[in-house]
Amino acid sequence: IVDLEKVLARARDLGLPWTPALERLEDRIERLKTQVPLVRALETVLASYRQETGASLFSPLTITIAGATGLQAKALHFCCTCQVAERAGTKLLRTKILSNTMNPEWDFTAELPDFILGDSLLFKVYNDNLDKEDTLLGMATVESHEFSTTGFDGNIKLSNDGAYLKLRIAPAEAAAAEAASDATASATVTKLPVEILKQMRETVEMARGAGLDDSPDKWLPEIGGKALFDEVAKLVEVARQEEEKQAAERASALAAAAAAPSRPA
Question: What is the per-residue burial (b if ≥16 Cβ within 10 Å, else e) of 60-93?
Fold first, then answer.
């Protein structure tokens, strides 16, 4: 946000015409100022819920590294890796080594177990130097918003000129929804500490008060707020339904007790 504000300030200092592009940038900054704190709050209450219930924070993601084209390096043994970007200690997926081709076809499919909704993915292509350190030939990052909703099936450009990776990535939101449904089935949200439920409700109301609800075009896709909001809102709704059910059962029990004939003294 700070960097984007510097761009706008510089444009004003230079007296540049206020073009539609600058208007869109200004609108984006205001949306980020609203949504980033909400995303952080949603992440916090979800982490509290998962810690309390033992529900997993991770939603395993299926990734296929089909192949690469246009590799121009003087290399003999190509391989490709995939890992969650900018989060240390995550599992590294690695293809087999293919030799004597500038267009390797690995057709490698694996599950990334420690993916968290909102993560970006980092891909790197190497020349495997066998008994020496591998040589990095190119890399590319696929941002979360590029595969969260509908998945990804296509080519991404590597950092070296003219080379591309062919990838298929499963929809991240579908994996997260499956993990969330399992978590909801294994833990009753009404058994959560009152303070956590209160925080969840307040965070959902904050988002709705800011005009953000379950409409996907209101959330900036690259920060993952829509999926986080949906998960917290779902848990809040489950808690509400459970509380209403329990209240109705108590009322029914009281009514039955009042209608029961009294025993003679």
Answer: ebebbbbbbebbebebebbbbbbbbeeeeebeeb
